Amino acid sequence: MKHPDEYKGREVVVLGLAKSGVQVAKVLHERGAVVTVNDKKEREQSPEASELESLGISVICGGHPDGLIHEGVSLVVKNPGIPYSVPPVQKALELGIEIVTEVEVAYLICEAPMIGITGSNGKTTTTTWVGKMLDAAGMNPIVAGNIGTPLSQAAQEASEDNWMVVELSSFQLKGTETFRPKVGALLNVTETHLDYHGGMEDYVASKAKLFANQKPEDTAVLNWDDPVCRELVPYIKAGILPFSMTEELVQGIFVRPSYVPDTEDDLERVIIYRDYSESETEIAKVSSIGLPGRFNVENALAACGIAIAAGADPAVLGGVLASFRGVEHRLEYVAEKAGTAYYNNSKATNSKATTMALGSFKQPLVLIAGGLDRGSDYMELLPVLGGLKGIVVLGETRDKLAKVAAMAGVKHIISVDNGESAAAVLQQAVREASALAEPGEVVLLSPACASWDMFTSYEERGRIFKEAVHNL
């Protein structure tokens, strides 16, 4: 994509009226582009339309008209969640029109160096952690993108004295061309979003675009324990800073003594940074980290690596690791009721995320799971479900999950029917789980599925769960 200033007087179509779409439309309009915003939602569901029209931006709601994309259009900026199969995107592809996401536009107008963080799991926690670390180091971070301020808005406000810390999805990265983060981090890769990407090959390729334009003076932070991350090494031109929980690295961030896969023990572990000269810095004891769960140790390693790559003093990172208490809907402690602890992990939208969450608790546990059916058989959960006291399943995948739970030998399997409203179903699930759990045990919402069969978002699902717990 050309710099946004070069679209002055040229036609640009923005697909999607979400916050990012509204903001990127304003950015391009201010630079003289002739902008049309299109959304399939009806006008009464699009309150942002009037604001854009008052600025002189054309807005078309209620569907995608046939003439929307034509040879006179120079650029299409697509909401990341809109699939490439929809007619206006297909038409743009046929005509050879550039299709990008907001990330590309924001990068081209941003004066601050960017940190891009992606992965199948842990993005928001790690991104938030990095922002707090850079703040503690006096580096003026701006956290934006999927969390916080829309990226194109933050990019306009940023200066060379800031660091832009950005959480990025595969959907966003797929629509980039020139995007080049100063620091790019890939946390992990697991099977997810295959309905959008059509297969793992496109999903991994989209994640890998984070590194496509990096140069040797940039840094790629990689999970050395993830085989997919390591397979990308030959294609990365940037300097590589690895992190590992299971290997003492020649250079990078690691845990000493290392975690042994599939085992748990109480050895006192420390997080170590070893630089290119093989000089070591002890960052923190693992036991001091403020978030529970082995997967949050992995997130902590990644955050430390990213912050160090950006120039933060390793000495300030330990305090941030200890003080950070997490992000809503990500293994969030909700309450204790009649001696049972309740945790909200609604952001767990795939089996890997739920597997990691289950490994965070030693107490007997009742799991609430289920949601949108994307075609998975959930056999990945088989090894970890056997330790459950019980499971309550709901949503489109309830029968699949019940089948796997039965194979795992779970004694108590309760299926909540979808005949009522979504809120009523989840409230019933909480009551069923509460009836199974005893004092000293845990009830965990960790669905292993997206929320869209019943809820508008994982956030809505998590909020309803928390309300149901408080109302017990």
UniProtKB/TrEMBL annotation:
It is an enzyme of class 6 (ligase). SUPFAM superfamilies: MurCD N-terminal domain, MurD-like peptide ligases, catalytic domain, MurD-like peptide ligases, peptide-binding domain. Keywords: ATP-binding, Cell cycle, Cell division, Cell shape, Cell wall biogenesis/degradation, Cytoplasm, Ligase, Nucleotide-binding, Peptidoglycan synthesis. It catalyses: UDP-N-acetyl-alpha-D-muramoyl-L-alanine + D-glutamate + ATP = UDP-N-acetyl-alpha-D-muramoyl-L-alanyl-D-glutamate + ADP + phosphate + H(+). Residues 329-449 form the Mur ligase C-terminal domain. Residues 117-306 form the Mur ligase central domain. InterPro entries: Mur-like_cat_sf, Mur_ligase_C, Mur_ligase_C_dom_sf, Mur_ligase_cen, MurD. It is found in: Cytoplasm. One of its GO terms (molecular function) is ATP binding. GO terms for biological process: cell division; cell wall organization; peptidoglycan biosynthetic process; regulation of cell shape. Pathway: Cell wall biogenesis; peptidoglycan biosynthesis. GO terms for cellular component: cytoplasm. Its EC number is 6.3.2.9. ATP binds at residues 119-125. The keyword Lyase does not apply. Cell wall formation. Catalyzes the addition of glutamate to the nucleotide precursor UDP-N-acetylmuramoyl-L-alanine (UMA). HAMAP family: MurD. Belongs to the MurCDEF family. PANTHER family: UDP-N-ACETYLMURAMOYLALANINE--D-GLUTAMATE LIGASE. NCBIfam families: murD. This is UDP-N-acetylmuramoylalanine--D-glutamate ligase. The lineage of its organism: Bacteria, Bacillati, Bacillota, Bacilli, Bacillales.
